[in-house]
Specification:
Length: 475
């Protein structure tokens, strides 16, 4: 078993028992217990991957060439992190991606969002914001000669979630800070590190003068964090392949199964009035609280008997109360309250089923409290209407990527199910492209102090470069 010699020495384990040492495949035989995934607690193994093999001479050349791009990848990641690419602001990050693709000698092509086409597609998620100026960026690396292998999409998303409350951050969240082998900042983990790894893999292969024997499509998409409609737009534009890898930072694992996610708002109308007067007023805020409890009961029902592979989780389905907007004056009884929720669903569960359960729970809870609602509460939808997705562990893509990983790192990746959603369902279900997630080791996605372990970015790029050789063939 051989692993790359180009890795940084592994620093001592830090934090709460999930150390970077665990990512490095060659470290797995040590006494350090490895994490099976990044995003601690959000993934469980679903199957045994194939055993490790041996690296060929060309493998070492590829791994070394990619490792030589480490500073380029780190600098690219830092430039990406320093762009605020929250919803509606993605374009500044896409400009950096276009520059990097051009620097590699590839031609970036814009795939603009088309609101009409998206709204007409059954797999689109609903949205009520402007998308006219948003563009996905795609570059196709075509064979120089000798077509023959399988084609591949390497995909990442440029959008990030809000870093608020910024007061919780030690530094500006849109400043990249490197310390102890980690790069910190909003999007460092989710998932600009993956984009840097994808581009680093391509850079290393091209530095060796290699060309794939089947097209490799490199994609930087918008709106992964709220709809998946960016990835869907690439499908609508005709981008397809024999397989896709999304470089989400699940670390030391191949994610083969993911839940679906539904976003919904519950709109409650009260009866506003002066706080000093008792009697006829109804507080929309206080009337919203029992609805949260009613929806928690739905969550509990969904968690009561999870199907495999989610039966390995104690609590695979999470309801999140993500935002509440109500009231504007301390002496006025609030007349409207809008609560924004996210709930997950198992693969195979139609979105319509979860919508029906949510609507019934809200209606029943309102009916049980006459007088608490000026009008029946309304459930509205915008954002994720995303079903779950899974690729069988014995699928050629999973076996092949596992084998590449094991050959390079000397230990097999875990095959995991995640309790989050990704664009894999869009490429996989809507695009018909078998898709898995594989990316760097990171912590704190969507949280404060989000960070990625930089050696894992290099390793991810190396495995991706070697996978291009295995899957597509190179000449
Ligand atoms: Zn992500």
């Amino acid at each position: 078993m051989v692993r790359s010699t180009a890795l940084d020495p592994v620093p001592p384990q830090i934090g709460h028992g999930i150390g970077p040492a665990a990512y490095a495949g060659g470290q797995l035989a040590s006494a350090v217990a490895p994490p099976e995934h990044a995003y601690a607690g959000l993934s469980v193994p679903v199957a045994e991957p194939p055993p490790a093999g041996e690296m060929a001479a060309q493998d070492h050349e590829i791994a070394d060439a990619i490792a030589q791009g480490r500073d380029w990848m780190t600098e690219l990641l830092a430039r990406l992190v320093e762009k605020d690419t929250t919803l509606g602001r993605e374009e500044t990050g896409q400009a950096v991606v276009r520059e990097a693709l051009s620097e590699l000698g590839l031609e970036p092509v814009d795939v603009p969002m088309d609101a009409v086409a998206l709204r007409a597609h059954p797999a689109a998620s609903p949205f009520d914001w402007e998308v006219a100026d948003k563009r996905n960026v795609v570059a196709t690396w075509s064979p120089a000669s000798g077509f023959g292998g399988l084609s591949l999409i390497l995909n990442g998303h440029i959008d990030v979630v809000s870093p608020e409350p910024r007061s919780h951050w030690v530094r500006d969240p849109f400043t990249a800070h490197v310390e102890g082998g980690w790069l910190y900042g909003r999007g460092a983990a989710d998932m600009k590190c993956g984009l840097a790894a994808i581009l680093g893999a391509v850079k290393g292969l091209r530095a060796l003068g290699l060309s794939p024997r089947a097209p490799v499509s490199i994609q930087s998409v918008v709106e992964e964090e709220c709809t998946g409609n960016g990835a869907l737009q690439t499908v609508l534009a005709g981008y397809a392949a024999d397989a896709a890898i999304i470089a989400e930072p699940f670390g030391a694992a191949i994610t083969t199964s993911q839940v679906g996610v539904l976003w919904f708002d519950v709109v409650v109308q009260g009866l506003p009035g002066h706080a000093a007067e008792s009697g006829s007023m109804v507080s929309a805020i206080e009337s919203s609280l029992p609805l949260i409890q009613a929806l928690r009961a739905v969550e509990a029902e969904l968690n009561a008997s999870p199907p495999p592979p989610y039966d390995q989780y104690e609590h695979p389905i999470s309801l999140n109360v993500g935002q509440i907007h109500a009231g504007d004056w301390n002496s006025t009884v609030p007349g409207e309250c809008v609560t924004g929720y996210r709930i997950a669903m198992y693969p195979g569960t139609p979105v319509a089923d979860i919508r029906a359960r949510v609507e019934r729970a809200v209606a029943d809870a309102a009916a049980a409290q006459p007088g608490a609602f000026a009008t029946p509460p309304e459930v509205r939808y915008r954002g994720f209407a995303a079903e779950g997705y899974q690729v069988p562990p014995d699928h050629l893509l999973v076996q092949s990527l596992s084998s590449t990983y094991a050959r390079h790192l000397g230990a097999s990746p875990a095959l995991v199910a995640t309790t989050g959603t990704t664009d894999a369902r869009v490429l996989g279900a809507a695009g018909g492209i078998p898709t898995v997630c594989f990316g760097p080791y990171a912590e704190g996605a969507h949280g404060v102090g989000e960070r990625v372990y930089l050696p894992s970015v290099i390793q991810t790029a190396q495995v991706m470069g070697l996978f291009i050789k295995d899957w597509c063939g190179v000449t």
